[in-house]
Specification:
The structure holds 2 protein chains of 2 kinds.
Chain A lengths: L4 H12 L4 E7 L11 H12 L19 E3 L1 H7 L3 H5 L3 E3 L9 H6 L14 E4 L5 E5 L9 H10 L13
Antiparallel strand pairs in A: 2-3, 4-5
Chain B lengths: L5 H30 L7 H10 L8 E4 L2 E4 L7 E7 L3
Antiparallel strand pairs in B: 1-2
Classes of the chains: A alpha+beta, B alpha+beta.
Chain lengths: 169, 87
């Protein structure tokens, strides 16, 4: 299900970046503890999977309630970063980002009518040129959810269609 | 009872009433301050400014490569924000 995001978003980025489309990602280790790497590792993974480099910020928490997950000790990363095999055996420590308070950015993104807990990795928010949220999308295929049509409208400054602005309401 | 200087008496009564009202306003203001309620006429505007500062994604600052990054750099763009993971 998540894999659909990589080719779809890459295609849209290549097609619309020059028109003003940007992508921002936040690595998170709160869903099945699936983001155990350091910010640097998660960033490198995102570049590889999406197939291009874009702004991937440092790891944050996006859930209102803290989650206890293990992560790679940043000190170990510094020690083993040039040796991926050794990194596999690096000790895990409590990931302080997963148990941190929800990021203010996500408190903002999850304002009504886009509210509801982030349910898994790859939840997407389309934000207009004025910084206001236009629509929220589930972790699934963005094209099936009409993201490209919404993006084209947003780039033109047109209002989005009247379908649900939050798939979970 | 009417007195020759009744007018003065009225003024005195008005002053008393004003003093009482001032005292009451001071007490209410003190209570409001204790409760964090805005009292000055321009405080609502300060609060509105505070709210509006949260009305744009591009008003936030985040961390990238361990350093602060101002999302103002994306102002005027159409942005897709998502949470990602490696496994």
């Amino acid at each position: 299900m998540q894999n659909a995001n990589y080719p779809a978003i890459r295609k849209m980025y290549e097609k619309y970046h020059d028109d003003g489309f940007e992508l921002i990602a936040f690595p998170v280790n709160q869903f099945g503890c699936q983001g155990p790497g350091t910010s640097e590792m998660e960033r490198a993974y995102a570049f590889k999977k999406f197939g291009f480099e874009f702004p991937v910020m440092d790891k944050i928490a996006v859930k209102a309630k803290p989650v206890r997950c293990k992560g790679i000790d940043p000190a170990s990363y510094e020690e083993f970063k040039d040796d991926p095999d050794a990194m596999l055996t690096a000790p895990l420590v409590d990931d302080v980002t997963s148990s941190s308070p929800e990021s203010e950015v996500y408190t903002f993104l999850k304002q009504k009518p886009f509210d509801g807990e982030i349910e898994w990795n790859y939840v997407k928010f389309l934000v207009g040129r004025d910084g206001r949220v236009l629509r929220r999308y589930s972790p699934g295929d963005p094209l099936e959810q009409g993201l490209e049509e919404d993006l084209k409208r947003a780039l033109k400054g047109d209002a989005l269609s009247e379908k649900k602005r939050n798939p979970y309401l | 009872m009417l007195r020759d200087d009744g007018a003065d008496e009225v003024v005195e009564v008005v002053e008393d009433a004003t003093s009482t009202r001032r005292a009451a306003m001071v007490r209410v203001s003190a209570l409001a301050l204790t409760m964090g309620v805005p009292m000055r006429s321009n405080d609502w505007r300060a609060n509105a400014d505070s709210s509006s500062s949260l009305s744009s994604l591009y008003d936030f600052k985040v961390k990238q490569y361990g350093a602060e990054r101002d999302l103002r750099a994306f102002d005027g763009k159409v942005t897709l924000v998502m949470n990602v993971a490696s496994e």
